[in-house]
Structures are given as C-alpha cells and as structure tokens.
Amino acid sequence: MVKSTKKKVTKAQKSKQYLPPGKRKLGNVAKYTTRNKALNRLQIKLPEFRRLCILKGIHPREPKKKFEGQNKTYYHVKDINFLAHEPLLEKDRDLKAYEKKIKKAKAKKNRELAERFDRLRPTYTLDHLVKERYPSFIDALRDMDDPLTMLHLFATLPADNVQKIPVERVQTARRLSLEWQAYVTRTNSLRKIFVSVKGIYYQVDINGQKITWLTPHALSQVLPSDVDFRVMLTFVEFYETLVGFVNFKLYHSLGISYPPIIDQRLERATAGVEELMEVVNSDGTSDELEDEETLRCKTLFKDLKFFLAREVPRDSLLFTIRSFGGKVSWDGDGAPYEENDETITHQIVDRPTQGHKFLSRDYVQPQWVYDSCNARILLPAEEYVLGRVPPPHLSPFVDNEAEGYIPEYGETIKRLQAASANHVLPLPGTEEEMVDRSEEEAALRRSEAAEVAAKEQEAVAMERTYGEELAKELAGVSYSASLQDQDDKDAMEDEKQERKQQVVPPPAAEDETATLAQMMMPKKTKKLYEAMQMGIGKKKAGVELLKQRKKKVEEKKKGSSS
Amino acid sequence: MGKKSKTSRKGKKAWRANISTADTDEFITQQAIEERSGGPLDAVPNESLYFVDKSKDTKVEKKTKKHREKVLHCDSVLQRNSLVPPLKAPLKPKRKRKEKDGAKPPSKKPAAVSIVTKDEAVEEKNLPADVWEEGDGNLSSDPGSQAKKKKKKLASVAHPVEAPAVEIDAPGCSYNPTFADHQEALGAAVAQEMVKVYQKVLQPPEVPRIVRGPGHPTDEEDLFFLDVDAEDEEEEEEEGVVVDGSVPPADSRAVKVKKLTRADLNRIARRKANLRAEKEKQEKLRLKKDVLRLPDIIEDINAHDEEAEKFRLRRMVARAERRAHEPPRLGKHKFKPAPVQVLLTEEVTGSLRQIKGCYTLARDRFKSLERRGIIEPRVKVGRNIRKKRAEYVQGSKGQKERDMHAALEAEREVSKHALSVVPV
After folding, report:
1. Residues A211, B227: Cα–Cα separation, whole Å
2. Using CA atoms, how far apart are residues A79 and A356, in angstroms rounded to an integer?
3. Are the beta carbons of A59 and B160 separated by less than 8 Å?
4. Distance of CA A320 to the CA centre of its chain
5. Cα–Cα distance between B316 and B309 in angstroms, integer?
6. How far is the C-alpha of B214 from the C-alpha of B224, rounded, in Å?
C-alpha cells in the first residue's frame, strides 16, 4: 500500500498573507526600493522626503544588483517602512493645513487674523529623534565631530535671503558653539590645534572621547551655488537639538545650570564670549580627579598674562589661551585689563613693525601660542619675534613615529621637551617623583643591557669567524681568496649587525631576553625577522632620500646666496 | 340611493316632510326625565352616584384577589423560568504586555508629538530635559515611550563608508608648512589636475556639432586646406562614380524590391537544407576528433577556469580598493572629491594675517556628507535658458525648403551626367 505523503505546511504557509514564491518578490527586489517608489509609498514630495531622511538618519544603499538601473537611488524597504511611522509626517501635514488658514485670511484681506494665526503657529521639537538615534550619551559624544563643524561654520555664515538662511539659525549656532567652547575652556580639555588653509582644526578629549572639529578663518564666507543649503539647514536644525542636549548634560556634570544666565551689557560688547566665561568659571564644582594630561594643560600658561593686538584672530586665541590656563585681554569694550597693564607678560601681534614696545613683555606672533600648546611647553619666543618668518607650523595630528620621519623643527621641539622634563622639579605628590625615577632607572637598565648585548654579539661573531677559518683551512682555501670572501661576508654581517643594533635601542624592557632569543631563533623565524628588517630598512631609505634632497636644496641655497 | 324614498325636494313644503324631528323630541323627553329624577347627571355630586363598597363580601374579594394575582400571559412569557443558568458575556483574556517591544503602538491615536503653541515650545526649550537621564526625564511622554517601543533593528545604523566626519588635512596644507610636506601636498594637488588634463587629452575627438555639407560655402581657412589635397580628391571621386553604375543615386528613396518566384523560393529552401546538413556533418566530425584529444580539452578547461578565477580575484581586489577611497555609487552622478586646499609656493608667506584662507567651507562640508554616503552626489541643475527669439521675415516661409529642393535637383543632374560619361 502506498503511503500518502503529507506535505509539511510551514508556519509561514499557514498565515493568510502567504504568497508562494512565484507570486511574491524575492531577493534584492524585496529588500530594496527606489526613491520614487518610496515617495509613492509615503505619499510625500521630494524635499520633505529628503528632510525626513536627514532627520531620521536614513541614507541610500547600494544593492549588489541594481534592478532598476544604474541611475536610480536605492533605499532599504525596512528604512522606508520605519519612516512611515514617524510622527513628524503628521506634524508636517498639520502645519501645512495651518498654513492654508493663514493664506486664506490674507487673501480675504484680514490682516489681523493672519497675524494672529501666525503668532499661534504650532511648532515641533526633534527631541525624540535625538533619543532614538543616540540612545546613550557616549554615542552622542562619539558623533560630535560633524555637528560641531557645522555649527561653527553656520555661526560665521551671513543670513542670506537667496539661500534662505534664517537669522535665528545663525544666532543659535553661534550661541551653541560659544557654550561648547566655554565648557572646553573650563575643563581644559583642548589637546591639539592645527592651523591650515581651510581653517583651524581643534581636538578635544572629553570623557575619553577624542572630538575633532574645524573652525573657519575669520573671513567672510561665501555661499557657493553648487551646495544645497536646504539640506545643510536641515542638518543644522538636527544638530542644534543634539548639541543643545549634549551641552546640557556636560554643564550639569559640572554643576552649572544649563542655559547660562548672561549679562546683557557684556553680551553686546563681546558678542557672547566673555560673560559665558564668567558664568562658567564662577559656578560649578571642580573635578578633583583630573588627568595628568589635563593638569599639564592647565598649568601651561598658568602665570602668564596675554594681550591681543587688533589684527590677530581673536576668538581662536581667546579660546586657546584660556583652555591652557592663561589670562587674556584685548583692545576694546569689556576687556579685563588694558594694554598699559604692567603685569602683562606676552603681547600677541602680527604686524611687520611695532611702534611702541614695552620692555617687560615679549612680543610674539600668534603661531607661538599654537605651537606651544601643541608641544605642551613654552617654546623660546626668539624665533617668533616680530617681523620674522616663524618656523614651520607642524601638524600635531601626524604620528611622527609611524612615518619614521621627523621634520627638523620637530626634532628641536622634542629636544626642548626632553630638556624641560629633566628640569621640571618634582611636584609635592610623590607619585611624579617615583615615575621620574623609575624612568631614569629604566633608561639606565636599557643602556646597560645594550652594552651587554653588544659584548655578547661580538663574542659570538668572533667564535663564528674562528670556526669558519678553521673550516676553510681544512678545505684548503688560500688565505687571499678567503680574505676577499671575508670582505663580502663582513659587509653583509655588518649590515646585519647594524640593523640589529638599531633594533636594540628602541624601548624594550626585555632587551636581554630579546638578544638571546635572536641567537636561538630557528631558521623560519629568522627569515621572517630578516624580512621585517628589510621593511624597516626601506622606510629608512626613504627618510635618507628626503634628507639628501634637503641637503642638496640647502647647498643650492648657500651657493645662490654666496 | 339610501333608504329614503325618492321624493323631490323642490319647495319648502317638500322639505318640511323630510325633516325628522326625532332628535329634538328625544332631547325634550330626556330633559323631562332628568328633571323628574333629580337634575341632570352633570350637576349631581359624585357622592350621590357612587359609593365605596366597604362590605366584606368574601366571595367577591376572593374572586377579585384571584384575578389580580393572575399574571398576564405576555408577562409570563417574558419571565425566565429555565433551569439553565444565564450566560454572562465572555471575559476577554487580558493580553500580557511584554516588557520589550511586544505590544503594538496605538496607531490610530492622535499624533505622539503634541501640538504645542509657540509660547509653550519656547518655555520647553528654556528648560531642556536631560535625554540621557537614568530615570525618566521629561521625555517620558509619548514620544519617548514610542521610541522605546520602536526599537526595531535597523539595517546598520553606523555610517556606510568608513571615512571620518572631519578629515584632517595633510601637514603640507598648514598655513606655514615645512618644505617637504608642502611639496608633497602640492604634488597631490598637481596630480589631481593632471589626471583631468590627461583624461581630456586621451578622450576620442568629439563629434563636431555643426558639419558643413558639400554644397555649403566653406570658411576661408578651409579653402587653403582644400587646395592641398585637391588632386587626390578628384581621383577618388571619379573612381567612386564609375565603379557603381547600377547603384541607384544615393538620395532616391523608392527602392524597388523584386518579387520572388516559386523557383527562387525553392532554390532558397534547398540551399538552406544543404547548409544545415553540412553543418551537422561538420559537427559530428568535430565531436569525433574531440573524443581523441580529450586531455587537451581538459587542459584548456583548466586554463580557462584559472583565468576566470584570476579575473574574479582581480575584480574583488579592485572593488575593495575602490570602496576604500570612494563612496559607493548611490545615484546618477559619480562622486568628485574636492580639490586639495593647499597654498601655492608664492602664497606661503608664513604670516597668519595675510593668509589666503578657504572661504567656501560650506562646499567642504557638503562634499564630506557625500563622501560618507549620507547624501547621494548631487549636481546643480541649471535653469532652462530659453531659446533666443527668432525673427521672421514675411514671405520667407518656404524659402528654406525651396533651397533644399533646388540643391537636391542640382545633385541629381550632376550624378546623371556623371553616369553618362564613358570611362576611357
């Protein structure tokens, strides 16, 4: 008897919405949809769709197979469905309906009614979006680069009518960026500054997160025509909310109430910076658990008083100097102290000649401040004196050890740093002393180990040559021929030894064990080791080439000048 | 007709006979009776007419009581007297709301973001709540809870392209760079420009928009060029014309198709069959030969497979490289990176005051957004420049067509005469 085989009905097949494979969409077509199809599904127009995507953080995708063609933009079906449940959609529709009322009132020449409607216009907030996209505070901090850059940029843009940049946006952007700068100043978190053609890059370390942003120079920014400012404004709208919340959290961690209460007179005079400083510095608790880095930064400009001339970039220098613990003043209303103040130690100027010079203070160019902050020591002011081209401004974002090449001025700075580290008196806290001492001891140990290793190597080499010569005698090789061979071998061995010696100095606490391990390496690992050395050698060759080029250039210069 | 007889009613006398006085007589007799019995019934007080029967007539009482106790049939039908207990409405089991995102959010309820007036919104902004508070901040209202419930797993929230939000320039882009770094940065900028130049140069020459035909007047420059190759051109022309005598002139539109006869069709069919048979024979022969050289075939296949594998690897590597330094292709246009912002050698003054800074930083931000794949690369669409107005001179309507026709005729004449020339 033939058993009737029952077809297994899967759970999916039991549901009423089940479609067999032939009838439903499969694969890429099911997962992705084009932009116009998304518009049809959501029943909105393109500008609103763009705005919603930006606010929700939905971006287009690239499917493996573009089933509608290369020219289309594809989105995830799940993203679009997610967008469909957004309450802002309803909000927008209500707003549109409200706008119609205003329009109607205007058309009926009922100006009062139109104005009243305008005043009572419903508004919306983006708080839920911030919470959705950044569930925890650290997520928001991680993503702060772009918002800060945008806000700083918009703070300097003109409120344009053509591109429809509203004045309130510009003002809010400026306020938020100033609040952020005040916080950084208060917590001395500024770590790196780089002045480039595009603008000034700052890097800050907050709660363990490194945040980098770019501020434009104090030029009047142009609104290029190939940039869609509606898109930028939507981003700025979202970022305003985000940065507002982040500032709130940060200020609360310091113990200051968030929208800082501002003195009106000062605000008008200094466009917001000064009173923020006052509020921030007066309120709040000081954090006792401070990083070593933070302490260093705090004490860098500790007893120094600066005065800024009119032609230097004021905002940037105010921010920088204050973050490193210095006192600043400038020429104008609301300044803490005047130019004639006796206790000023440095005056920052940037003009070719200075008419009246005080003797008690140093006249330096602004680059001195930036370079000192990057190096964390007070560089000698002679090189940054007036009328002289200062030494090159190096980028602190370049990892010199990784490149293997340190520019000349970088080496000078390194030497100065080392010198100052030696001269630095031990702080009352014994930890620092211990650290220094242990460092010195470690250095001593290292040098000793290097000597011992060198001696051992020599001994081994001598043994090897003795053994080889014996073998050669037995083989019957003549002395002169063996000498020639020896020379070649020696050259190779010398190179090897050089390389080995170069390897030994780099910091390693287990130098002795390392050299021993070298001796006892099996062939395979030895070959790998040699391959590594070849790589290092190539890098060094590159560096050598650069040095030679530099020499040539210098020679040419000398030749041309003489 | 009724019971009344058909009497004529003409005249008063006739009418007198038909009037019945019965009701008046009745009334009068009734009144007489009422007066005799003690007045009209209306005027008599109730007490004289009615009395309450307080006599205890048990028979009557029982009867009345019995009658009163009887329930109306309609009422008895409505009363329940079944032994089956009545069913209560079934209790719907309350769905246990899971802690996670089990419950569906109320979709038909009013918008989660409440419509606040401007003043309220201003107030709220003045006291922002902490979004990331451990307990519930002010955002415990609908938007927040909705966000919690809506913890759907979105496809990769992280940025699609691994590029930092703020890309730091090379050290050579500093306002006072070292010589080596500056040269490097300049090299990169120059390389970008040269790539563009080379692409232009290596492109095939563009098809010119306007091509001047043989009849149109040539430019002065072209006249000189014409003279150079004049001899060669004439020879070519003659040859071209002489060889194809039977070809109809190039401009004639009507091409006559010869009608195929039965014989022609048969011939064609036979030819086709022959070709097919030959093909099959050749195939069979080839198969036979292939069987003999199997190892060679295997080698060929292996080589082919290896090449395909290499090609695949190469493509994968190329794709990985491209993905590393370019955003994915998200739309119609390809991503064009912004040029490297570096100072020219003469602009490196080392002075911060005289720096030639970048004043289009908005473009840098926009490009960064495109680079990270958040926006698809966009190209500004220019406004439609309306075509220039064309002036119309009256009487010139068909002039162009007439000219063209004349030119056509002239060419035909020329070709006819050319045909009649006999080659030497």
Report:
1. 72
2. 66
3. yes
4. 16
5. 11
6. 16
pLDDT for A402:
72
Q: What is the mean pLDDT of residues A135-146?
A: 92
| Residue B121: per-residue pLDDT | 42
Name residues whose C-beta falls within 8 Å of residue A272's C-beta, 6 or more positions apart in sequence: A174, A175, A178, A262
pLDDT score of B263 more than 60: yes
Say if residues A300 and A378 touch (Cβ distance below 8 Å).
yes
Give B-chain residues touching A398 at CB under 8 angstroms.
Answer: 171
Name the more confident of A242 and A521: A242
Place A444 in a pLDDT band, splitting at 50, 70 and 90: low
Task: Please name the residue that has the structure tokens 């800074």.
Answer: B357
Does A302-426+435-446 carry CATH code 1.10.760.10?
A: no
Asked if B360 lies within 8 A of A367 by C-beta distance, the reply is: no
List, in sequence order, every residue forming a beta bridge with A211; answer none if it has no partner.
Answer: A204
| Four-point Cα dihedral B66, B68, B70, B72, nearest 10 | 160
Among A92, A12, A11, which Cα is nearest to A49's? Answer: A92
Considering only the beta carbons, identify the residue of A119, A311, A397 that sits closest to B353.
A311
Q: What is the pLDDT of residue B137?
A: 38
Is it the case that residue A438 has pLDDT exceeding 60? no
- Percent of chain B whose predicted confidence (pLDDT) is above 70: 71
Q: Taking CA atoms, what residue in A is nearest to B143?
A: A128
Q: Which residue has tokens 């305008």? A: A118
Beta bridge partners of A65: none
**A212 neighbors A202 (Cβ within 8 angstroms):** yes
Q: Are A142 and A119 in contact (CB under 8 A)?
A: no
| pLDDT confidence tier of residue A527, bands split at 50, 70 and 90 | confident
Whether the per-residue pLDDT at B25 is higher than 50: the answer is yes
- Are A213 and B166 in contact (CB < 8 Å)? yes
B166 close to A143: Cβ distance less than 8 angstroms: no
Tokens describing residue B5: 């007889």
Token reading at B184: 């490097």
Q: What is the pLDDT of residue B73?
A: 85
Single-letter residue type at A133: R
Backbone angles phi, psi at B52, to 5 degrees: -85, 130
Strand order of the sheet with strand A362-364?
A327-330, A305-308, A346-348, A362-364
Chain A residues with CB-CB distance to B145 below 8 A: none
Element (H, E) at A346: strand A346-348
Helix (H) / strand (E) element for A362: namely: strand A362-364
Does the structure show a pLDDT above 80 at A290? no
- A190-195, strands of its sheet edge to edge: A190-195, A199-206, A209-216
The share of chain A scoring above pLDDT 70, in percent, equals 81
Query: For residue A259, what are its two tokens?
Result: 């929208």
Task: Band the pLDDT of B300: cuts 50, 70, 90.
Answer: very high
Task: For residue A214, give the nearest of A154, A148, A143, A169 by alpha carbon.
Answer: A148
A236: nearest CA partner in chain B:
B365
Nearest CA in chain A to B344: A197
Is B178 in Cβ contact with A224 (below 8 Å)? no
Output the average pLDDT for chain A. Answer: 83
| Model pLDDT for residues A480-523, shown as the tens digit of each residue | 666 666 655 555 555 555 555 554 444 545 567 767 776 777 88
B129 neighbourhood in chain A, CB within 8 Å: 127
CA distance A46 to B224: 57
